[in-house]
Amino acid sequence: MDNNIESLKAEINGYRAHYLKAGSGPPVVLVHGGASDSRDWTGTMTSLSHRFSFYAPDLIGYGQSEKREKGYYLDEFADFLAGFIEKLKLDRPTLVGHSLGGRFCLDVAIKHKEKVGKLVLVDTTGLGNMSPFGNALQMFFWGLRKALRQPQPYPNFLLKEGEKFHRSYDEDLRRLTIPTLLVWKKLDPYMPLSTARRAVKMIPGAKLAVLEGYGHAPHQKDSEAFNKILVNFLDNE
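^ thats the sequence. predicted structure below, dont judge the formating
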């Protein structure tokens, strides 16, 4: 990991949380997806730390943040991120969320809109139906976990609140008032591009940037192009 990236801890809503920090400038909170941790964002942090102050938390139950056996409720993740912003005294930061992390960033923008300056959703889950492959993969891991009677590699909230996880965001999207950007791979195997095209029509003033090729993590696989898109949005919106 880059020497300019700090590894820090903070008490957030009663949880001992770990996060990475780098750079100076306008604050940007980077939120990882459901099968990873804050290290997913080290490339972006290293490349753009001369322009922005980056904060990349390990969500509760992930990475080096505190874990608990009984799992988590969906609302706790948005509340955790809102508490993270408040604890670090960040002034209306941009929230950038990948995959499931984008879902939680959207929840923050809806529930705590006064805390968020801009929103970037990267191949985000929860905006519509997953692809058949994505659904099949999700069911495979749930079935494997049940068969092995072992914890899945991410917190057990999907099984606790399945109906809430799949609720419609349509009305919430129409009420979003902050500058919003969706970044999507053209051939995402989990969340089809049609999901993003539908969502961007609902969010007032939202923009969609599409990166060519196959994949689900453009900030890693197409980092140079992704960083240019991110900087352009942060500078001009």
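Confidence is low (pLDDT under 50) at residues 133-155, 157-163.
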